[in-house]
Amino acid sequence: MIIRILPSASQDLIDGFWFYEKQSDGLGQYFLDTLFSDIDSLTIYFGIHPIYLKNIIAYYQKGFPLPSTI
Question: Which helix (H) or strand (E) holds 51?
Fold first, then answer.
């Protein structure tokens, strides 16, 4: 299984990192660690997530909702 993070999603991760880092020192790194842990779990639990558009698997991370201001 190949997991691809699109450039626009990469920018969202960077924006999210800086948003949370401004809230509290180290929170931005915790945000990224949490998300990348969830991304890694996609390879472990491949096949249990809903499939969209023939070959796209979606998983919604619930611990760190991004505010609409980012």
Answer: strand 51-52
**Domain annotation covers residue 31:** yes
Alpha helices in the chain (DSSP H): 7-23, 27-44
CA distance 17 to 14: 5
Backbone angles phi, psi at 61, to 5 degrees: -80, 130
- Per-residue pLDDT of 7-18, as tens digits, reads 988 998 999 999
The overall pTM is greater than 0.85? no
Say whether 64 sits in a helix, a strand or coil: coil
**Distance between CA atoms of residues 1 and 3, nearest Å:** 7
Question: What is the rounded distance in angstroms from the CA atom of residue 55 to the CA atom of residue 9?
Answer: 18
Residue 39 structural domain: 7-57
